[in-house]
N-acetylmuramoyl-L-alanine amidase
Amino acid sequence: MTDDLSPTPTPDDPAGGPRPPRRRGRTAAFAVTSVTCAVTLVAGLAASGSAVAAADSGASGAPSAVSVGSDAGSRERAFAAASREFGVPRTVLEAVSYAQTRWDFHPGHSTTGGYGPMHLVDAALGSPAEGKGLGTLGTATTTATAGADGTASGDARLADTLGRAARLTGLTKDALRTDELANIRGGAALLADTQRRLGHPTGATSDAGQWYAAVADASGTGDRAAAEGFADDAYAVIASGASRQTVDGKRLGLLPAKVTPQRGQLAGLKLRAGATNGPVDCPKALDCEWIPAPYEKTGEGAGDYGNHDLANRPKAPKITNIVIHNTEASYDTTLQLVTDPTYLAWNYTLRSSDGHVAQHLAPQDVGWHAGNWYVNMHSIGLEHEGYAATGALWFSEPMYRSSARLVKYLARKYDIPLDMQHVFGHDQIPGVTPANVPTMHWDPGPYWDWEHYFQLLGAPLRQTSAADRKATDLVRILPRYESNKQPVTGCETTSSPCAPLGTNFVYLRSDASATAPLVNDVGLKPDGSPATTQVSDIGARAQAGLEFAVAERRGDWTAIWFNGVKGWFWNPRSAPTALPVKGTYVTPKAGLASVPVYGRAYPEASAYPAGIPVQALAPLQYTVAAGQRYAVGDLTVPTDYYRATTFSTDTPDDHVDVVGDDRYYQISLGHRFAFVRAADVDVVRAK
C-alpha cells in the first residue's frame, strides 16, 4: 500500500465532539457553554553534525537512531540495548516507535490508553469517564479476530499490550508505563515474540524487511488496511529517515536505509478484510467503513426529523471547508450517537487506536456538527476519537496519519485549499450571533499539533518563500509544538495546572511584558476582564498556522490585531514564534470609524424569494476600527443560505440554496475567524 503520506525529506521540522441530544432544530443542539467543555523526515543528518553515514539495512538492520543532542543518549541507548537483548533489528524497533508516537514519551497515556515511546496499552485503564465536553461513554464493544499470538485482534488485543509485555519481560506494569528503557524493552519483546510465532527469522542483524508482518501486528489492529498502512508508514521511515525533537526535549534522528519489506507476510496475520460496504467517499488505502447516519422522522411535524439535511453538494451549496473535531467520547459511544436519529451527524469518525475511518454521510448532504449553519452548509466534519482536556492529552499518530490521508483526498476532490483558513478546528468557527459567541465549542483544543498535521498534509506551515521572509505586515504563528509548553489550567480540576505538554498557541498580552495581563475577549468576557489560562479559554490564544496583521513591534515583542485590540506575544529573533508571510489584509474604508464583523456570509434581503424568510444578519460584538488591519483568509467565500427545515425534499420553498450578490471576505479576527462585507473595507497587499 502506497500513498501521498510516504515520508519525504523536509526541513526540521473542548471540548467539542458529540453534542447533547437535539430537540427540534439546530439551535438547541449547540447551546453548550464553552466552559464545559513537522513530522521531520530527512534524507540525512550531515547538516546536524552527525558523522554516521547511511548504509544498507537489508542484511543487518543498521544504521539506526543517532543522538542529535546531548540529552538524547538515554533513549538512543535504550533502543540499542533492547535490540540486542530481544533480537530485533534496531531500525525496525525505532521505526515502529516512530509510527506509534514519533519517539515521544508523553507524561500520561493516549486516548487508547497507551504509554511511552512504544505506546504500550494498559487493559485496565479503559477510557476516561467523560471528557470536558458533553459526550458520555457507553459500553465498548469489540469485534475480535485471532492475532499472531493467539489473543484477540482489534481493540481487545490492543488493550492488553502492556500486560503482554509484562509477561514477556517480567517487568512490572508500572515500570513499563514510566521508565523509557523498560517501555522500549517491552516493545522489543512484543515484536520478537510475534516474529517467532510467525516463524520468521529473528536477531538484531536479521533482515529488516523480513519483519513486515510483525510490524503490522504491532499496530494492534485487526483491520488489514490499518495494519498494512501502519507497517508501510514504519518502513517508509526506515527508507527516508527521520529527525525531530520529542515533546520531552530529546533530539533524535534515524538515518535512511535501503530496505525491501516483505509485504506478502501479511497473509499470515489473518486480518479482517475490507470493511467498505457502502457509498464511501474515501481514499482506497484507508478502506473506510460505511456506518450511515439516519435520516428519519422523529415526530409528526414537518420539522421533526434527524439527524442531518439532504442537499446537492458540491453543486449547491459548495464544499469549501473541512472541520477538525474531537469526540469527547469513546469510538463506540460516538458511533452510537451518530446513528441516533434524535442526535447530530457529521461526515467521518476516526478511531484512535489504529486510525480506522467510518463514514456517516454522503458528501452531498449537510451534517449538523459546527454550531454554525453557514459553516455546516459548506463543510465536511471529521470527528477524531479523543479528549481536549480531561483524561488523555495527546492524539495517536496512526489517527493523525489517517486523518491527513483523508483530508488530502477530500481537499483534492473538492478543490479545498490546504491551509488553516479552510482546514480548521471547531474552535476557530465563529458564533452566528453575539449570544452564540460564548457557547461555541473549543475542540480539538490546545494539544492538537497543527504544525505536525499540516506537515502530514504536504502543506508544511513553515514552508515560506524568500519574499515571505522579507515581509513586515503579516505574520504566521509557528511556536514549534514540541517545545512550546504554555501554562494551561483546568484539565482535571478548575484551578489545577495541566500536564506540561506541547501546545499549539502563544498567549497574547495587553502590553509588551511577560507580567502584563492577557488581552480581553469581549465576546467571552464582556466585563472587560482579561482572558485566563483555563484550558477552555481561547480568548488570548493566537493559534499555530493562523496569520495576523502586525500592529507594532517593540524589541523581542510583536503585537498583532486580535479581536479589536493589540495582542503582544514574545517573538525573539533568536527563536521566533511567528514567521513573516506575504498576503493581503483588510482595513476599514476611508471615513468609517469602524466596520461590523459577522459570523456568517448570508445574502442581502432582496435575494430571498417570496416563500423563504429573510435571514437577519446580526453583527457580532467585535468591530474592526479605523487603523486596524486583519489578515484575509478567503476573498471568494460564497454568499448564500441553504434553506432546509423540513423532512421532505418536496416541500415548497425548502431545500433551496438562496444565492446573494453581496460579497464578504473571511478574515483572521482572533482565535476564531469572521466575515466582513466587501463594501466596508479595502483589501491591501501586505508588504
Observations:
- The longest helix spans residues 180-198.
- The domain at 276-588 is CATH 3.40.80.10 (Lysozyme-like).
- The chain has a mean pLDDT of 86.
